[in-house]
């Protein structure tokens, strides 16, 4: 080793070559580590996709080198060193963000991370950091040593020589990149950043999403083409024709509406026992009093909880990147609170946390809520979950009743919080999870058990206060609790095979709707998503909502859910947009994509229509 250092010292050319090569491979290895530690890419390691991703990343690093080689002369070693630090910082941010949100950082996401969000997320992130992440800094001693040794030993290079050096690097980089680019199906990139990251690497994904962002900014004229206009018109026409009403139409007309959006409550815990005890006894009990929809998928993207709120209150899809709450808060929307307000309802949103989080203070107004009851309106007398920093769901529910004027019909939208990642707050919570004690999944189950207890209290209180039968009561989960990095624990717990279609089918959230004076429970296994909640409610409450992209789950024969990343589940097949694989819905056998391509693209049109409405603020017109 010492000899190598001495040789390098004696011959700065060798030293410099070593430094460049070391830089290239250090960054490449970190990128590959990112791709696998986040599960964007998976085994087998030498699969076609993984190979494409590696080659593309290598090519992009060469292009970065070409830039450094051209721009920096005597200071090029320093430039490599600083670039390494910057790219490493980006990769560390990417890794932690991805582990939490399962999404690649983009400019909209980045610009939306105000300090509060950063703070809260930071703490979640600390539980996501992995020992193997040391790989991100393991090269630093060599980079520093090289910098010290070479700093004053590399000489000036004439401009034309630098240009040639740079052009060679650029040419090799571009040709290598083009050799893989043509082999990748790029149309799916529009729906999923993860897909571009998986196939061409995270650096490409950043480049691609930045390009889209700039294009969007430059073309900020809000015009749409004639074809787009027709597409939107036709879609709403078809949707409205499909929503014929019928079953349960108007059954809750004039009644109160209470919606509880339950933080991170996924379907797999419903009705399940662990060591002979029910995980969610109160929700299970509520199934016997309500209509239980057991085949509903969440459709959130980068806006997580806020996306679920948006889906439920507008029946539009959230945007693919960042949070619609941050990016399009100035838009005009047709929404559930607006319609009910017109009908003389008071409309309230309740959430026991900082009012600015997810830009709710602004967005609830945009959506038409009269009152937003947030953390500052509660007495902070009990903290549970989320590092013990958030008002407990129990106290949240207990205090909320007094804030409603029950002499008038009202719509109350409640967003719970205690069952929020990281769940380790609940490690010592008194609910026996047996072998799962101390694991991520075990802690989640405990958190969900606690959240269920609070829901049970809320329902009992509604009954005690004679509100239960005057109300259409809707409960649903907002999004996943188990990220893909913890997938193994869930597969093992449920005794399932590790497969992408099975994983997609696990992305379900419970939806329960109880109408006034309901005597007979019902289970409806129609496939749907959160986007269908609003049209289902509007039918039951007896009003028209012609701007919904969803279906009325009680009056349709359609069976489908479109995820925000373009994955589609129907009763016939599961289409995974990332891999473009299609599986038989019932037995999981692989099907031929070509057979479904037309239908898939017509489903994906829904995302396109939603995006156009939001990004061009079309409801304003
Ligand atoms: C905070 C809460 C958390 O107010 O809604 O949001 P999430 O991190 O689940 O998107
Ligand atoms: Mn949430």
TrEMBL record:
Protein's UniProt name: Lipoteichoic acid synthase 2
Binding of substrate, residues: 420
TM helices/strands, residue ranges: 17-36, 48-72, 79-102, 128-150, 162-182
Predominant subcellular localization, coarse grouping: membrane
Localization terms from the record: Cell membrane
GO terms of molecular function: metal ion binding
Record-stated family: Belongs to the LTA synthase family.
Gene3D superfamilies: 3.30.1120.170, Alkaline Phosphatase, subunit A (3.40.720.10)
Membrane topology: Multi-pass membrane protein
């Amino acid at each position: 080793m010492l000899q190598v250092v001495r040789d390098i010292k004696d011959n700065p050319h060798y030293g410099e070559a070593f430094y460049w090569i070391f830089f290239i491979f250090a960054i490449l290895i970190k990128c590959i580590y990112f791709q696998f530690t986040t599960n964007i890419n998976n085994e087998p390691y030498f699969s076609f996709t993984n190979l494409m991703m590696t080659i593309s990343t290598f090519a992009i690093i060469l292009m970065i080198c070409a830039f450094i080689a051209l721009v920096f002369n005597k200071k090029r070693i320093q430039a490599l060193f600083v670039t390494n630090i910057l790219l490493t910082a980006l990769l560390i941010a990417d890794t932690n963000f991805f582990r939490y949100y399962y999404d690649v950082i983009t400019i909209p996401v980045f610009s939306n991370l105000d300090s509060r969000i950063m703070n809260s997320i930071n703490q979640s992130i600390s539980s996501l950091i992995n020992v193997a992440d040391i790989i991100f800094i393991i090269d630093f001693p060599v980079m520093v040593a090289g910098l010290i040794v070479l700093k004053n030993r590399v000489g000036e290079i004439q401009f034309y020589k630098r240009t040639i050096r740079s052009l060679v690097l650029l040419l090799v980089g571009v040709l290598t990149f083009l050799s893989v680019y043509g082999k990748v199906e790029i149309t799916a990139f529009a729906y999923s950043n993860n897909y571009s990251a998986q196939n061409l690497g995270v650096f490409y994904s950043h480049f691609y999403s930045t390009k889209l962002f700039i294009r969007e900014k430059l073309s900020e004229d809000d015009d749409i083409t004639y074809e787009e206009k027709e597409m939107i018109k036709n879609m709403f026409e078809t949707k409205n024709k499909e929503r014929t009403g019928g079953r349960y139409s108007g059954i809750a007309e004039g009644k109160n509406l209470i919606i509880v959006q339950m933080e991170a409550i996924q379907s797999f815990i419903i009705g399940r026992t662990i060591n002979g005890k029910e995980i969610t006894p109160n929700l299970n009990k509520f199934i016997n009093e309500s209509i239980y929809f057991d085949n509903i998928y969440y459709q959130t993207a980068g806006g997580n909880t806020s996306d679920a709120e948006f889906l439920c209150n507008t029946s539009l899809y959230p945007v693919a990147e960042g949070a619609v709450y941050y990016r399009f808060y100035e838009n005009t929307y047709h929404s559930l609170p607006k319609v009910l307000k017109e009908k003389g309802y008071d409309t309230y949103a309740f959430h026991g946390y900082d009012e600015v989080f997810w830009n709710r203070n602004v967005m609830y107004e945009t959506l038409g809520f009269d009152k937003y009851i947030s953390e500052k309106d509660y007495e902070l007398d009990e903290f549970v979950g989320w590092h013990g920093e958030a008002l407990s769901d129990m106290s949240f529910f207990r205090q909320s009743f007094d804030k409603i004027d029950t002499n008038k019909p009202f719509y109350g939208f409640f967003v719970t919080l205690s069952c929020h990642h990281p769940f380790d707050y609940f490690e010592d919570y008194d609910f026996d999870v047996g072998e799962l004690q101390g694991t991520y999944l075990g802690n989640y189950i405990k958190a969900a058990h606690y959240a269920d207890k609070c829901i049970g209290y809320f329902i009992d209180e509604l009954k005690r206060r004679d509100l239960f039968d005057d109300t259409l009561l809707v409960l649903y989960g907002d999004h996943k609790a188990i990220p893909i990095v913890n997938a193994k624990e869930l597969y093992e717990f449920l005794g399932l095979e590790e497969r992408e279609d099975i994983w997609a089918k696990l992305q379900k959230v419970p939806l329960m709707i109880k109408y006034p004076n309901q005597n007979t429970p019902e289970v409806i296994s129609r496939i749907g998503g959160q986007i269908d909640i609003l049209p289902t409610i509007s039918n039951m409450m007896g009003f028209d909502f012609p701007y919904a992209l969803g279906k009325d789950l009680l009056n349709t024969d359609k069976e489908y859910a479109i995820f925000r990343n373009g994955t589609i589940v129907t009763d016939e097949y599961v289409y995974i947009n990332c891999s473009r694989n299609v599986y038989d819905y019932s037995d999981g056998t692989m099907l031929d994509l070509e057979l479904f391509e037309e239908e898939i693209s017509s489903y994906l049109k829904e995302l396109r229509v939603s995006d156009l409405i939001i990004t061009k603020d079309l409801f304003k017109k």
